[in-house]
Structures are given as structure tokens and as C-alpha cells.
Specification:
By secondary structure, this protein is α/β, with parallel strands linked by helices. It folds into four domains: about 40 residues, no CATH class; about 180 residues, no CATH class; about 120 residues, no CATH class; about 100 residues, no CATH class. Helix content is about 50%, strand content about 10%. It is built from 23 helices and twelve strands. The protein has a four-stranded parallel sheet with strand order 8-7-6-12. The protein has a three-stranded antiparallel sheet with strand order 1-2-5, with no helix packed on it. Helix 6 packs across helix 11. It is globular and about 65 Å long. The two termini are about 35 Å apart. The C terminus is likely disordered.
């Protein structure tokens, strides 16, 4: 790095080449980049560039080979009802994503099975095993991200590595799956109700070996290097996923990832300049390419206008979380997009307490059906949500806004975790400002009790993310919609 007191020039070595970036002015952002680079100088392990992660965790690594084989074996053999329900729900969602029966034989999926040395592989179970392996890695990576931002926090990855038995490891993973450090920081809608947490219900020594292997390998990497190059860290998950699934298999499943140059061009054509007050929805966000680029533009806009815009970082992150939103029907893509979203706003996380990550597992075209007059004599509407466990009717009054749905699902989650019966569930809902209509007739009372009783299968079947259907924006909101014909 060179500096004349007014301008920085950053130089770095890549393999046998030396690259010099264009001069940039001294600003809080460029000083932060300098500090991140200095922090990485003392790295005690491998750094986080995509190539390093692909070698350690990609399809050709011994870790991935053994991990996918063992997870496939477990999901095929398990008789646990919760694990089976999560798997069936994944098949429903992923079948809609790729457009064909995931149980069917495919030459490309068979080639994938040969690569992982599973001669008698079941297609759906194999894909689910690969997705689960990748999801466990993402959860640990995101945990390291949060821990690296707060020196007072104990790394959940380190806690997993330091466990002394299979049971204690399962206990640590259970805490992670319940929200872990994100919940402590007030960040919601990241892991709660995740379909890929099925392995906890089917836990055995094989699963413990896979989880501990991923944790130990990732623990070799130095988290101080995670934030050195934001543009590179954006590609961490994309490159690893592409390494786990050959291109022919991904394309056969209907997955086409948007190159960065095309995403930039599209945002330019849309006229999106990064103004945090502008709203942008990607209705098929995939791993979040458009979302991350929009977030980067908004942060740059704030850096350029911070003295004239009239608000600080706390208000900035509030605007970003309210206005840059993604939908997708692929459970794994949603998790990747949420992780990438976290990576993109990692420098703003200290200001994001009480934040809900605005990436939702839902169908942006086929919304839940509406029915009238079935919950009360007054004609209240309901929305039907179809899952692997059952069909659930959600009172329309709780789907009026994202905030209402958030309160609703938080109350349901609390009641499920504490084993509440219907009556206490309704009392808890009322005390937590859940907008529900008090039962005034036998019919309404019965429906209300059923709504509370249905909490348990709803949570185990579809997960918190998939039960949320964000309401359309108001007519006064400014929305910019990126193309829905691709997955980014």
C-alpha cells in the first residue's frame, strides 16, 4: 500500500503477478480496507479466497466425498418422522424449482453419484445429501463471520471443534440451528426452521463425523482474512457450489447463475444508483448476485452522500433491510443468498440489532390461495399453505405485513419450543401482539384452537422461512424488479 496523505494505492500479489489497483481517495471506507489488509498480515492459517475453499471443501476433496456418502446413507436409512418430513418438503420445493421429478433416473445425476462413489444412489436422496453438506458449511462460515465482527463473542465453530463427544457436538449444533449468535445479535430469518437441519433428528456417529470434519477443516482458516477483499468474498459460496455440482447437472436442474458483468449491466439499465430509499426486489434471487451488488451500490451511495443525506449507519442498515429484498423457491439458494447478504453488510452488523434478513423462501408467482368466510362469521379470509405434512390455513389478518408475519411466526416458534397447548398458545400470541381475532363463536373458537394446534406440524414441515409470504408493496413504494427468468 502506498499513501501520500490524500490518496491510497493498493498493490497485491496474485500467484506470479503483481496487480496495482487505481488510486483511491483517503476515506473511512478505504482506511477500513487498509486495516483489514493489515489484520490479514498476521493470519495464522489459510485465507478465504474461493480457490482455497474449493480445494478444501469441493467435490474432489476427501471431506466432500466422505461427507456426501455418509449423509446419503443416513437419509436413506432414517425412520425419524421429522427428518423424513423435512426431506419430503425439500422434494416438493426442489421439484418445483427444477421442473421435473427429482426421484426420476437421470444420466447426469447418475454421473454425480459415480463421482461421489455411491453406486446405488437414490437421486433425490443424493441431491439432498449434497445440499445438506453445503448447508452445514455455510452455517459454520456465517458463524465465523459474526464471531469475527465481535471479539467478545465465542466462535460457535470453535465450540463445535472443542466438543468431547457426539452428544455435546449435537448440543452445540442444536444451538446453532436455533439461531445461535445471530439470535443473540437480534438477527432473525437466517436459520430458524431450516429444512437442512434434519440431520439433528437423525443424528448418529456418522453424522457427527461429517459435521466435525467440516468444522475442523474450516477451523484451519483464519477468519481475519474473510473481510480483506469484499469483491472476492462475494464469490465464496458461488464457486464452492459450482464445484460441488458439475455444470451439466446444475443446468439439468434449471440452475443458471448470472455472471457479475450481466448483473451490473442490468442494474445500470434499471437506473438503480444505490439510493437506499429506492426499493429493489429480485423475485428469483438464487444465491443473491443482484442483491449483493445492489447492497454494494447502496453502501457506496451512502459513502458519497453521508454528509448530506441526513442519517447515519443505523438508519442506513434499516433502509437496506427494508428495501433490498429477495425471494426464491430453492431452499439452498435462499440460505446462500442470506449468507451472501450477511457478508455484504458485515461492516454494518453492529448497527443491525433487531434486523430480519429480507430473503424469503417462497414462490414469487404462485402465492398461497385465499379463501373467504371460513374462519369467522364476519367473513375473515385465510390463506392456504401446502406442505409435506398437511395443508394449513393461515388467517389473512396475520399476513397483512412483514412485521405482522414476523410476530406471528416468532410467537408460534416460542410456543412450539416450549410445548404449549392451544389455550396457552393463544394467550401467548395475544401478549406478543399477534393480530388475531378473539373467538366469538363456537366455529371461530374451534378454528383458533386448530390454528394454535397446527403450529407444530407447520414448523417441522416447511420451516419459518417457507411459511412466510411477504405482502406486496404499497402503491406508494418505489420498486425496481430484476428479471425473474434466471437464477442469480
Amino acid at each position: 500500500m502506498g499513501c501520500d496523505g490524500d490518496t491510497f494505492v493498493f498493490v497485491r500479489a496474485r500467484k506470479s503477478k503483481v496487480e496495482a489497483d487505481p488510486p483511491v481517495p483517503v476515506t473511512p471506507q478505504t482506511v477500513e480496507r487498509l486495516l483489514r489488509a493489515l489484520a490479514s498480515v498476521g493470519a495464522q492459517g489459510p485465507s478465504f479466497p474461493p480457490d482455497n475453499l474449493a480445494r478444501a471443501f469441493g467435490a474432489d476433496s476427501a471431506l466432500a466425498q466422505e461427507g456426501v456418502r455418509q449423509l446419503h446413507k443416513v437419509i436413506v436409512a432414517t425412520t425419524n418422522p421429522k427428518a423424513q418430513t423435512f426431506f419430503r418438503q425439500w422434494k416438493i420445493l426442489f421439484g418445483e424449482v427444477c421442473g421435473y421429478d427429482v426421484e426420476g433416473k437421470s444420466a447426469k445425476v447418475q454421473k454425480l453419484a459415480e463421482h461421489y462413489a455411491i453406486p446405488d444412489a437414490r437421486p433425490a436422496e443424493l441431491l439432498f445429501a449434497v445440499h445438506t453438506y453445503y448447508a452445514i458449511f455455510m452455517k459454520f462460515l456465517a458463524a465465523e463471520l459474526v464471531a469475527s465482527m465481535n471479539p467478545m463473542v465465542i466462535s460457535e465453530l470453535r465450540q463445535a471443534v472443542n466438543t468431547h463427544s457426539s452428544d455435546t457436538l449435537r448440543h452445540e449444533m442444536h444451538k446453532l440451528e436455533q439461531g445461535g449468535l445471530w439470535a443473540q445479535m437480534g438477527i432473525t430469518n437466517f436459520l430458524e426452521g431450516d429444512l437442512f437441519s434434519w440431520y439433528l433428528a437423525a443424528w448418529d456417529e456418522q453424522v457427527a463425523k461429517v459435521v466435525l470434519g467440516i468444522a475442523r477443516e474450516l477451523d484451519r482458516f483464519d477468519p481475519n482474512t474473510l473481510s480483506v477483499e469484499p469483491n472476492e468474498s462475494r464469490d465464496l459460496l458461488k464457486k464452492l457450489y459450482q464445484n460441488l455440482f458439475p455444470r451439466s447437472v446444475r443446468h439439468d436442474l434449471g440452475e443458471y447463475y448470472t455472471p457479475d458483468w450481466l448483473a451490473e449491466l442490468t442494474l445500470n439499465e434499471l437506473g438503480y444508483d444505490g439510493d437506499p430509499d429506492k426499493r429493489l426486489l429480485d423475485p428469483a434471487c438464487g444465491s443473491g448476485t443482484f442483491l449483493v451488488m445492489a447492497l454494494n451500490r447502496a453502501k457506496q451511495w451512502f459513502a458519497d452522500h453521508r454528509h448530506g443525506c441526513g442519517y447515519d449507519e443505523r438508519e442506513l442498515v434499516r433502509k437496506l433491510l427494508a428495501n433490498i429484498i429477495g425471494f426464491d423457491l430453492n431452499p439452498l439458494a435462499v440460505m446462500a443468498a442470506r449468507t451472501n447478504y450477511l457478508l455484504a453488510i458485515r461492516d454494518l452488523l453492529p448497527y443491525a440489532h433487531g434486523a430480519e434478513l429480507p430473503v424469503y423462501l417462497c414462490d414469487s408467482i404462485m402465492t398461497p390461495a385465499e379463501y373467504g368466510g371460513l374462519f369467522s362469521a364476519g367473513g375473515a379470509d385465510r390463506r392456504e399453505l401446502r406442505t409435506a405434512a398437511a395443508r394449513f390455513q393461515i388467517p389473512a389478518e396475520v399476513t397483512a405485513s412483514r412485521e405482522a408475519i414476523s410476530r406471528y411466526t416468532a410467537a408460534l416458534e416460542f410456543c412450539v419450543q416450549n410445548g404449549y397447548e392451544p389455550a396457552p398458545s393463544l394467550s401467548t400470541a395475544a401478549s406478543r401482539a399477534w393480530p388475531w381475532t378473539p373467538p366469538t363463536s363456537p366455529c371461530t373458537a374451534t378454528c383458533s384452537r386448530n390454528s394454535a394446534a397446527w403450529t407444530r406440524p407447520t414448523r417441522t414441515a416447511s420451516g419459518r422461512g417457507s411459511s412466510r409470504t411477504p405482502s406486496p408493496p404499497s402503491s406508494s413504494a418505489r420498486w425496481t424488479t430484476s428479471p425473474a427468468t434466471r437464477r442469480g
